[in-house]
Write a structure and sequence with these properties.
By secondary structure, this protein is of the alpha/beta class. The chain has 5 helices and 5 strands, in the order E-H-E-H-E-H-E-H-H-E. It starts with 7 loop residues before the first strand and ends in a 9-residue tail after the last strand. This is Universal stress protein A-like protein isoform X2.
Length: 166
């Protein structure tokens, strides 16, 4: 039960289909969110921009409307699945309010915009741990948010799994 006069905190957790993001959410639930405060947990999933894919050589592929509808439906199913998984992780929270948002666009920009729009006091996100080459091409979402979000950013790294040492 939240203490009388307890500070209200809004914690935004960026979630996606990766293990890293679910680890970050679990870590946040164990270490940050508490019913001693009047915490609101904001779960945000960002669907990638609509599929007009551009290959590395600059040629664009235009899809038929049926294919676009199928891609859109699949994107919605992925978003719903991610949110259901995230809400299941949050189900044991006491007095903590959980809100969900699904947005479209480039995750780097949308996450930063939503921290501002939703009045987040803290942004929590996972780190995919991409190698240098992949990070160079894709850009690091967590790095971009750490530089551009208008609130503190907590980047939670998933521990590297080590072989069982008996």
């Amino acid at each position: 039960m939240a203490e009388v006069g307890a500070e209200e905190r809004r914690v935004l957790v960026a979630v996606d289909e990766s293990e890293e993001s679910m680890h970050a959410l679990s870590w946040c639930l164990k270490n940050i969110v508490s019913d001693k405060f009047r915490d609101t947990l904001l779960l945000l999933y960002v669907k990638p921009p609509r599929a007009v894919s551009t290959a590395l050589d600059g040629t664009a592929y235009l899809f038929s409307s049926e294919v676009m509808v199928a891609i859109e439906r699949y994107g919605n199913e992925v978003a719903d699945c991610v949110m259901e998984k995230a809400k299941r992780l949050c189900s044991e929270l006491g007095d903590v309010k959980v809100e969900t948002r699904i947005e479209n666009g480039d995750a780097r920009d949308v996450i930063c915009q939503m921290t501002d729009k939703l009045g987040a006091d803290l942004l929590v996100m996972g780190s995919h741990g991409y190698g240098l080459i992949k990070r160079t091409f894709l850009g690091s979402v967590s790095n971009h948010c750490a530089q551009n979000a208008k609130c503190p950013v907590m980047i939670v790294k998933k521990p590297k799994s080590t072989p069982n040492s008996h």
